[in-house]
């Protein structure tokens, strides 16, 4: 059987978002499987015993974890100065988020009228969500993850012979190129790279052509990149649409990229231009420590906002709409592109919601059983338990 990329999507349905701590636990579990297999192989290379290997001697499959977490700020390794109590209080103040925009109505002759900005409002009141703060093994400073974003964490062995082997530098580039290609193929957005990590766009990156950009554009801020000129030529007229963070342990990957799909404070119909920290998480930080650089989203770059995001996802045969549909659609497209770039011959295998829930429940229970450990976070454990109970009800679990 040909190798396939397993895609594990951890569900979130507004206002019940997966705690970042639980997603990290899933990632570490999968990563440990790869590391244990490498340990077993190393042992058998110096010993006649083969007891540590599985009967099939097959390595764990490469896996993509995708999710939309509850609001959280992560501090990278360059964040060496401790936050003051006032800074911590500012970052962790509750975030007021509107209910998700309803999906667009079926196409009709009147569908091109004025509401294409995606500004149709839900009857649900705004939600007040708690905000967490944590340290991350990635490089860099402070960034934000939360609703409206899809986080993509591939877990694989860069030196595995099952697929294309990559250096650390090539892996980081593959993550960026996968994101650029996905944005171009699905949304006709021309992303590019700069001297700073991540994927960037200029205000002119949304193509008016029905044909998506087909090439990966790499360059420095100020270069004529993005497929339409644009920018001010001085490097200021660009905005980050996807963040990048990489961590490796013995060539086994962790972290990855995060694409802003419909982010508060970053696009049309989602509080564009607001500096109100109660509803715009980006107003509380200088994202990744990059002064003068903006943050944007897919919806913010499209003339039709959220409604156009859904329409383009549906046109590409992908899931769209509320209840996490937009994020699942983007993640599915990204998974297919990653499998192609890493040369995983069998494509993508989507893990069922039932199997995903069972894995998360097992990991959460295992952690709570070891609550006496020094690193046990009781608050995080309570959040994980509450999330799992609610999400099972919402997606038709037990």
UniProtKB/TrEMBL annotation:
Lineage: superkingdom: Eukaryota
- Region feature (Disordered): 37-70, 94-146, 197-233
Pfam families linked to this entry: LplA-B_cat
**Listed Gly residues bias regions:** 224-233
The annotated regions of Low complexity compositional bias extend over: 42-56, 109-130, 197-219
Q: List where Pro residues composition bias occurs.
A: 97-108
Which SUPFAM superfamilies does the UniProt record give?
Answer: Class II aaRS and biotin synthetases
Q: Which terms does the UniProt entry file under GO BP? A: protein lipoylation
Residues of the BPL/LPL catalytic domain: 58-328
GO terms (molecular function) for this protein are: lipoyl(octanoyl) transferase activity
The protein in question is named: BPL/LPL catalytic domain-containing protein
